[in-house]
Specification:
Order of helices and strands: EEEEEEEEEEEEEEEEEEEEEEEEEEEEEE
CATH architecture of the largest domain: 7 Propeller
Number of domains: 2
Helix content: under 10%
Largest sheet: 6 strands, antiparallel
Shape: globular
CATH superfamily of the largest domain: YVTN repeat-like/Quinoprotein amine dehydrogenase
CATH topology of the largest domain: Methylamine Dehydrogenase, Chain H
Oligomer: single chain
Distance between the termini: 5 Å
Number of helices: 0
Strand content: over 45%
CATH class of the largest domain: Mainly Beta
């Protein structure tokens, strides 16, 4: 039976991550907690809105209501950008220590040498993602998505689909782009030819996405099961039905986190329960019983035996699946 090491914090957990094997929890009140030979914490923002781990797993990049972007690595907290009085509503990380952040209608890329490049948009920037190689920045916006070449001076690519797009991800092979929407749906594009992929039928908004280890599956929240779309073929999930894993008739899935190497997903629910399910046969293992609030963030460690999790009510912790 898996064991759970609980940590009862006060507030909404935006990101729960492993950094150097140490569990970290970034909370909406602007404090980053870590379990490093005891419980330690550091005040970073006056109100945190976004947090993401860099691709090297060495820095937590955060943005807040104070208009600042910080890099946190253990006790070392450094300001790396600011946007005056504008809130930093989204952050993204690329290779070579490149980051991007959203401030109002502007997306800003910060390169490793500290140089900044701004990309203006007619409406608010809602979500950001770098392509796998970091050459392009994807922006989720009203009525679609925009793709910018980060370094080249060229016209952006506009991908149109009516409605408010709130989040964005590239597939690990860079062939597909998927956005979450304000309505209960995902939308996708095959980048080679611009073909649309409509992924609808969700009873709730999709707030969590996770690619499987080899990028063949995309797991999503927003239903009483984890909805897992197939991306093995050249046209992605077009014309194919998704898997439904960890079905619970009365409780919504609020967070998904695919295993680092196997076709398995950790599934977090609105009541705080965490389950693991295998894609091949839908076999389930209970990892955590229901808690105080909805699971908002999860991540596997590099050893593939622990899962760090956070919730909207602050009852966070670490699950050791080896017991």
């Amino acid at each position: 039976m898996p064991t759970v090491a609980p940590l009862d914090l006060d507030g909404h957990c935006i990101a729960a991550v492993f950094m150097g094997g140490v569990p970290h929890f970034a909370l909406a009140d602007g404090i980053v907690h870590r379990l490093d030979h005891g419980h330690k914490w550091q005040a970073v923002h006056d109100g945190m809105l976004a947090a993401v781990l860099d691709r090297q797993g060495q820095r937590l990049i955060t943005g807040g209501e104070d208009g600042k972007v910080f890099s946190s690595a253990g006790e070392i907290v450094e300001p790396i950008a600011e946007a005056g009085r504008k809130w930093i509503t989204s952050v993204a990380v690329g290779p070579q220590r490149t980051i991007a952040f959203a401030a109002g209608k502007t997306a800003v890329v910060r390169f490793a040498d500290g140089k900044l490049r701004e990309f203006a948009h007619p409406r608010s920037v809602e979500g950001l993602a770098f392509s796998p190689r970091g050459m392009r920045l994807g922006v989720a916006r009203y009525n679609g998505a925009t793709l910018h070449y980060v370094s080249a001076q060229s016209q952006p690519t506009e991908l149109r689909w009516d409605g408010a797009h709130t989040g964005i991800v590239f597939s690990p092979d860079g062939n597909f782009l998927v956005t979450t929407m304000q309505e209960n749906a995902l939308h996708g594009w095959k980048l080679a030819d611009g073909k649309h992929m409509r992924m609808t039928g969700y009873p709730a908004k999709v707030k969590s996405l996770s690619w499987s280890a080899k990028g063949k599956w995309l797991a999503s929240s927003g239903a009483p099961a984890a909805i897992v779309w197939p991306f093995q073929g050249k046209d992605g999930p077009m014309g194919k039905a998704p898997l439904e894993l960890g079905t619970r008739g009365d409780t919504m899935v609020t967070c998904v986190a695919c295993h680092p190497s196997q076709d398995v997903a950790a599934i977090g629910y609105a009541d705080g329960m965490v389950m693991a399910a295998r894609f091949a046969d839908a076999r389930e293992v209970l990892l955590r019983r229901p808690g105080k609030g909805a699971v908002t963030s999860m991540m596997w460690d590099q050893e593939e035996r622990r899962i760090v999790f956070g919730t909207e009510t602050g009852d966070c912790g670490v699950i050791d699946i080896a017991g």
